[in-house]
C-alpha cells in the first residue's frame, strides 16, 4: 500500500503493510532519525511529532492514518521559538544521553508556540508525559525557561 502525506513541508510517499506506524515510516523509510522510539506505548513522549498542528505520539498512530496530513518532526520545526529552544538546550548542555530531547523539544515548542510566556507550572504540566531516564529534568526545565526569556526579549512570539 502506498501512502502520501506531508513531512516538514515536503510531499512524501511511503509503503505500508497497514500495520506500520508513523515512527517506522519516518525513521526507516524517510531517514528522519530525530524522532525517537522509546516505549512504543504512549508512555514516554520520545516519539512526539506534530500532526496538523497538534502534538501526537508517532509510535501509536498507523501511517495510513496520516494520509493527506501535515507532519512536522524535530528536524522541521523552524522559527524564533525553535531557534531559542535549540540554542538554550545546547547552551545548557541539557540532558545526558539526549535520547529524550527531541520529544521534549517538540513538546516544549508546541507549548511555547501556543502560549505567550508560559509559566513554569505550565511548562512542567506540558512536559509531564515526557520521560527522561537520565533524570536530567532540572537542566531541561532551566533551558526551556531560558528559551522563553529569549523569545520574549526578541519579541519573537509575533512570528512564532
Ligand atoms: S515511544 Fe511513543 S510515547 Fe514512548
Ligand atoms: S537525557 Fe537521557 S533520557 Fe533524557
Keyphrases for this structure?
DNA polymerase, domain 1; binds FE2/S2 (inorganic) cluster; globular; 2 domains; five-stranded mixed sheet; alpha+beta; 14% strand; Ubiquitin-like (UB roll); 160 residues
Characterization of the model:
The chain starts with a strand and ends in a 6-residue tail after the last helix. It has two domains: 2-72, Ubiquitin-like (UB roll) (Roll), CATH 3.10.20.30; 80-159, Orthogonal Bundle (DNA polymerase, domain 1). Helix 2 (80-92) packs across helix 3 (101-114) and helix 2 (80-92) crosses helix 5 (137-154). A five-stranded mixed beta sheet has the order 2-1-5-3-4, covered by helices on one side. Helix content is 38%, strand content 14%. The protein is α+β, with helices and mostly antiparallel strands. It has five helices and five strands. Bound molecules: FE2/S2 (inorganic) cluster (FES) (2 copies).
